[in-house]
Amino acid sequence: xxxxxxxxxxxxxxxxxxxxxxxxxxxxxxxxxxxxxxxxxxxxxxxxxxxxxxxxxxxxxxxxxxxxxxxxxxxxxxxxxxxxxxxxxxxxxxxxxxxxxxxxxxxxxxxxxxxxxxxxxxxxxxxxxxxxxxxxxxxxxxxxxxxxxxxxxxxxxxxxxxxxxxxxxxxxxxxxxxxxxxxxxxxxxxxxxxxxxxxxxxxxxxxxxxxxxxxxxxxxxxxxxxxxxxxxxxxxxxxxxxxxxxxxxxxxxxxxxxxxxxxxxxxxxxxxxxxxxxxxxxxxx
Length: 285
Fold this sequence. Notes:
26% helix, alpha+beta
């Protein structure tokens, strides 16, 4: 009796791409990419002094590009981590790193467009990866990508140490959003709030021609009348130490900015939240 055929259970790449990119909006995708640059700055300057480090974002209805000079990506990370889904065994993250699961960058780029180029240079290496997502999706058994350029044990001048990611052949919805002036304004406001700590540490973030500014929160303090409440507690987990800090107080009246702000590893993951998620109550009340 002939052996029966296998029952196919593998996903199609189109399903993989759609499932990976279905739950993220464009502003959040760009915020994720900026998080990667902040993580790179943290690796490059563990003392938290980011003077001279810069993240530049440009876009229009034909392309998106983000570039930073935060140390570059080494060849091992490029080959084993950059486009893998999840972290490989033995991967060691930077203390305080924002990205944890190795999904964000792939999801962010795949949802933007079909032509992706990643270029990076460190002090002694550089590489280029070019991806045509349509052609890649048409090869069901080929999941890896190839280097277009790969150079090791070279000398790279300090002003050429950088990472640049470019996306072309944008999806129609993304190209439309990029062409709207309101999107740029909203993105600037979002990044200024979420990257407040990085900006305070002198990381320069530029969107188009606009350099983001640090705007620290100021709570009112009037002796015997009003003063902020503060709570801090440390928790020892199995591998890491978790520190929780809660500050509550009153600022100048700004209804659209009222709510809870939740920061994790230097990045605000919730901004002016007035939902039941933070026990504020009914939305806006």
